[in-house]
Amino acid sequence: MEKSELIWLDGRFVPWDEAQVHVLTHTLHYGLGVFEGVRCYRTDDGRSAIFRLSEHTKRLFASAHILSIEIPYTQDAINEACLEIVRRNKLEECYLRPLVFVGEGEMGLSATSNPVRVTIAAWPWGAYLGDEGVKNGIRVKTSSFQRFHVNTMMTKAKAVGHYINSILPSREARTAGYDEALMLDTDGFVAEASGENLFIVADGVVKTPPLTSVLPGITRATILTLLAEQGIPVVEERFTRDAVYIADEAFFTGTAAEVTPVRELDDRRIGTGKPGPVTQSMQEAYFALIRGGKPQHDAWLSYI
Question: Is residue 3 annotated as a catalytic residue, yes or no?
Answer without folding.
Answer: no
